[in-house]
Amino acid sequence: MEAMNQNNNTTDAELSQTSPNTPAAIEEAVLFPDFNGRIFRPPPGSPRPVKGRVVLVHGLNLAPATMDPLAQWLAAQGFVVARAALSGHRDRFMDLVRISHEAWQHDVALAVAALNRLEVDVREAPLSGVGFSLGGLLLSHHARKHAAHESWHGLALLAPAFMPRLATGFPVGVLPRWLPYFSFTPRRFRRWAFCPHSAYLAIGRLMRSHAHLVRKAKGPAESTVSAADLKRPKCLVLIHPRDELVHAGRLVDPEFGNGFDSYEVRYMRDVHRSWTVARHLICHPSSLTDVAWGDMCHQILQVIQP
Question: What is the dihedral of CA 148, 151, 156, 159, to 10 degrees?
């Protein structure tokens, strides 16, 4: 099973366009031994204080380093970014076979905790999130679940996996959890050659938990602080109108805005290079046209800018 799912030839360094062994990256790994992602900081000499903190979360079976170019761009704009590496997407394929959505939620919480342990001027900066597909679902779930004690400024969700298209054939629970299942991620971005059936089951359970939180958030959010003091995040969803994995038409349901200050869905059309599949908004500069990459970055900035 492990041999069948060896890493692709594309290395993390090629995807991230940086060396993974820079002194800054090593220093952060020592400071946060329980955080498995990477911390990206603004370049030396950038104005202080920083503009904000960003939690950046990748999608299912996507190599975590695929998000590094976006993390670098955000850092260059003055943000401190915690790019997560979700459980099952690091060293061992069997970790993804045994995955639970609670483990993914814990990974997001660790990314937030890492940002909260940085120096004072960073800790006091506004907190935002950017997530792709599974990452968007996780951030939306986390922000609602912890609304009582975490203040989020903005969420930019790229093709968030709120609702799958039935045509994607999400596997049913009668199949063995280790069964290899086709991965919709373009091959050069995959962490593993195949995705286990159990990972799709975990997403399905997370979708149901998220839907419960969305319905629960209708009206005033439950909180230990007054409604006047509670800051709700604004949320922007970017998606191709004919995304073949996520049901883009259902995302416009205003119910998904429950618990948020604002909720908007914007369509990005004809954004992918010719070799990409499924019209799923893989947020890497080599998967999008130059114009689309620049437009996506600009729209993300509009949401997370204080």
Answer: -20
The number of distinct structural domains making up the chain is 1
In DSSP notation, 90-103 reads SS-HHHHHT--HHH
- Cα-trace Rg, the chain: 18
Q: Find out whether 207 and 163 touch, Cβ atoms under 8 Å.
A: yes
Distance between CA atoms of 35 and 84, rounded to whole angstroms? 8
> 136 lies in which domain range?
3-304
- Per-residue pLDDT of the chain (306 residues), as tens digits, is 444 455 554 555 555 654 444 545 545 655 677 888 999 999 888 888 899 999 999 999 999 999 999 999 999 999 999 999 999 999 899 999 999 999 999 999 999 999 999 988 899 999 999 999 999 999 999 999 998 889 999 999 999 999 887 544 454 444 555 555 666 677 788 898 888 888 988 999 999 999 999 998 865 444 444 444 567 899 999 998 888 788 888 899 999 999 899 999 999 876 776 545 577 888 888 888 888 899 999 999 999 998
> SS3 of 215, please?
helix
Would strands 52-57 and 127-132 be described as parallel, antiparallel, or unpaired?
parallel
Q: Is 255 helix (H, G, I), strand (E, B) or coil?
A: helix
> What pTM did the predictor assign?
0.87
Domain with residue 250: its CATH number is 3.40.50.1820
Q: Are strands 52-57 and 79-83 parallel, antiparallel or unpaired?
A: parallel
259-288 CB burial, b ≥16 within 10 A, e <16? bbeebebeebeebbeeebebbbbbbbbbbb
Q: Which two tokens stand for residue 204?
A: 């399905």
Q: Name 267's bridge partners.
A: 239
